Amino acid sequence: MMKKMRTVKVQFTWWWLQVLALQLTLIHAIPPAAPLQCQDGGAGGCTLFNSYGVWNDRRDCRVVNATYPKTEQELVSAVAYANKNKLKVKVVSKFSHTIPKLACPDDGGGKNSMLISTSEYSSGIEIDEAGLAVTVDAGVGLRQLIDAVEAAGLSLAASPYWEGVSVGGLISTGSHGSSWWGRGGAVHDHVTGVSLVVPAKPSEGYAKVVRIGEKDPLFNAARLSLGMLGIISKVTLSLEKGFKRSITFNFSDDSQLEEIFMNHAKENEFGDITWYPSRHTAVYRYDNRVPLESPGDGAFDFLGFQANSILISKSTRATEKSLENSRNAKGKCAMASTFIGVKKLIANGLKNGLIFTGYPVVGRQGKMQSSGSCLYSPSYRIDESCAWDPRIKGLSFYESTAIFPATKFADFIRDVKKLRDLNPDNFCGVDIYNGFLIRFIKASQAYLGQSADSVVVDFNYFRADDPATPRLNQDVWEEVEQMAFGKYGARPHWAKNRDAAFGGVKGKYPNLGKFVEAKRQLDPANLFSSGWSEGMIAGEAAAVAAKGEGCALEGRCVCSEDSHCSPAKGYLCKEGLVYKEARVCRYSSSSSFTFTV
């Protein structure tokens, strides 16, 4: 055992030194693969992948064909073709980061469906400097938009942390940063206009463009629509005069987290908190705007979104798989401690210039709000990539995101601490990634937005290569999920989560009926709906798998009997340790077996 631990420690130390070396050089990576792959120029059908290379159900998303319009009129023609031929249709951009199958039009083999890609509809950016607004084509990438706005001396106040998204995609799924100030941290709450291409009568040419402004009755449905109302062609966003931000990370004890998170959000315009439960550590991000003339030209190049050596990514994955196979929680804790140490040393990717030299880091809003440097690279670089690129067999993980009413979040933290305190080592698996990332979004009038000021919690954790393989401490993460979505009524992020998180979602959105009515008005034939999206809105069986053998192992269901877990491998359906109503797949040490992830 000591020899194994020494080997693990050496691997971690080598990884740490490599990361530090990479910080001192300009790294480029293999650019991500296009999400839409077609055979024989499209004649042989197309397959849609997300950026992780695998959907929740591990089944391919196939369509009969795809089209790549370059103009709004070509978008209209594509929708007209689909409507005339009664094809199910969805939209995909040059990026594909939804974890559920929101972008997949049909799970029936794709014979009656098509995809419309906005990857080539991405050139239009019209900035109204006097009116503090920008109107963009839906396929424009977030970084492209940010750079154009900043070049005009203006700033986009809200955006997600990851910039590998299109403008149409990010407002469709509720993407957000972190803020309770002003219009808030959700990008759709900064939208002032949306143009949709929707089905039309034959006399209207089978498709038409609908322009929707803030006073339009359809506005609160259109600005966060999950792609279910029509194809977004253009988006208008509000802007602000250019500004800078000042960021400091404070690594602290987590003993008062539940008492002070609310004040932290109120006192810091863009503040967030990263909580590492196994290490009893909370990292408070003090993040506020400062005048444009403030000294500093820093940037936030988030460590997790930087180009990684493929060798390091594969080694990290191999190490974690080995620890899973040997049920070595202590080894995972050693990984977590090392990774958190690196993040503290280099400020998690904050840079005063070429490297991090000290707090605070001050820089233009456009350099501080979003990152994703692993996206940009020449194809001839074959030694680095985004760490999760499926082509390199690097990191593979689940991403759960729960959105709580702010008034309930303190009690959730207390319950998680009770579960953590039973055995802190059980939480090391999530701390290997990014712990619990806690962000803040303001109450929204959007029908599918948050009806009250809310706290968003993201946590990532290991996913096995084989769907039939249970995970180390699987029961812990299932209990945390069910605690969030069940006991505290948290809402799932529309573009993240395992399928079981969407159970009962219908009752969590008081304005869902208004959204459905808008959907009937704009898309009466359900051209833009799929079985999965309809089931997700209904919170019923199409979004959550019918229960069967092993369905709980990958969050396709919540177990109610042992067969939903993996009794042959010692995982049985049990009640939660803190939240007794939870039903989780827990390992029984009385069983003797081995398995490979």
What's this, in brief?
This protein is of the alpha+beta class and 597 residues long. It is built from 14 helices and 27 strands. The N terminus is likely disordered.
Secondary structure elements and pairings:
Elements (H helix, E strand, L loop, with lengths): L1 H22 L12 E3 L7 E3 L12 E3 L1 E3 L4 H13 L3 E5 L20 E5 L7 E4 L4 E5 L4 H10 L2 E2 L11 H6 L18 E9 L7 E7 L5 H4 L8 E8 L1 E2 L2 E10 L3 H11 L4 E5 L4 E10 L8 E2 L7 E2 H16 L3 H17 L4 E2 L9 E4 H4 L15 E2 L11 E9 H17 L5 H4 L4 E6 L12 E9 L11 H14 L3 E2 L19 H11 L8 H8 L32 E5 L7 E5 L10
Helix pairs in contact: 1-7, 1-8, 6-10, 10-12
Keywords:
597 residues; 14 helices; alpha+beta; disordered N terminus; eight-stranded antiparallel beta sheet; single chain; 26% helix
Helix content: 25-40%
Write out the strand line-up for the largest beta sheet, numbering strands in chain order. 20-14-16-15-23-24-22-25
Largest sheet: 8 strands, antiparallel
Unreliable stretches (pLDDT < 50, length at least 5) are 1-27
Pathway: Cofactor biosynthesis; L-ascorbate biosynthesis
Keywords: Ascorbate biosynthesis, FAD, Flavoprotein, Oxidoreductase, Signal
Enzyme class: oxidoreductase
Organism: Linum trigynum
